[in-house]
Amino acid sequence: MDSSVLTEIVNNVGFIRLNRPKVLNSLNVEMVKIIYEQLQNWQEDPEVAFVCITGEGKKGLCAGGDMRAFYDLKDKNGKEVAAEFFSIEYQMDLMIHRYSKPVLVYMDGIVMGGGVGLSIGGSHRIVTENTKWAMPEMNIGFFPDVGASYFLNQMPGCTGRYLALTSSIMKAEDVLYTGAADYYISSADWPALISEILSKKWTLLGAKTELNNLIEKYYKPCEMNLSSLSFSQEKIKQHFQFDTMEKILASIDYSITMDNDDHWAKEVKEILLSKSPISLKVTLIQLLEGKEKTLADCFKMEFALSMNFMDNDDFYEGVRSVLVDKDRSPKWRYPSLDKLGMGDILSYFRWDRNEEVFIALDKLDDKTIHKF
After folding, report:
1. Is 196 a catalytic residue?
2. pTM, entire model
3. Pairing of β 50-55 and β 60-62
4. Residue 340: phi, psi to the nearest 5?
5. pLDDT of 217 above 70
6. pLDDT at residue 283 above 50?
């Protein structure tokens, strides 16, 4: 049986290829273990000049973590598996942010959730006309993780907050606008680019500059005015600048009252009201807290959140409605935001510290962060 992750070194380039195309390269425990261990080994290997991460199949890099697996294990050892998965995944993602060598990530097609975690810390992040980027966790009663508490706060205005709460999908122009990618190329040019990469004998010295120059040969200017996020920036800031969900929705309601033809506001309101009230409120506080934290501390906070969400019925209901029955009709625990007290929300940020896990996370700091 083929490995879920394919790794090899060719001409001093370390290749990591996610190899579960039938499930859009969704990450599981086995995969994050392989990737994390390989990244550790290659960081110390003088024969590896840089790392290249891609996804097998034609649909994308990675659709995220295999959340269906946690649903299936709910009444067994699901929380234990989740603890292992998230602790390794977050260490892996943080390592990519602080990697001492260039990390090229080819973000063709679907790049969502855990796929964003793999790509956001890379030094050379390439999008194409096929890119579909999102943090879609709100759709399944979860929260945006993989360092989102940090990197979403670095995006223009309140864009990150909007993306987190609505689970909106970005195209290439939007991804470049937010700073979550560096280069745009045509997917038709990728074989030629990778062929040139394979034809060279790379060395540690000058690898970053040579890689920059090589990608620039295929780089295509991307019109920022085609970014829908850029076009909607004023509205996003107007409504998502507030520190509670009630205020955000009140602002949107006011706009609708003043202009019944404000279709953007109506659509955003409908989207927000379809999400889990728990996820909405927890995520907003998560992002507010993340503004004052380092990236490493954001990962620690997110680990606590991930463990507490494993005890949240909304998570399993969300997974059921999207990934199991696929009826897209979740029955959330709370019917509305006003039924939720602050004490209920803050409980998701508490965790009886699993010292072994947190010590492992503490080993990684915020040095040598490539982006943001």
Report:
1. no
2. 0.94
3. unpaired
4. -100, 125
5. yes
6. yes
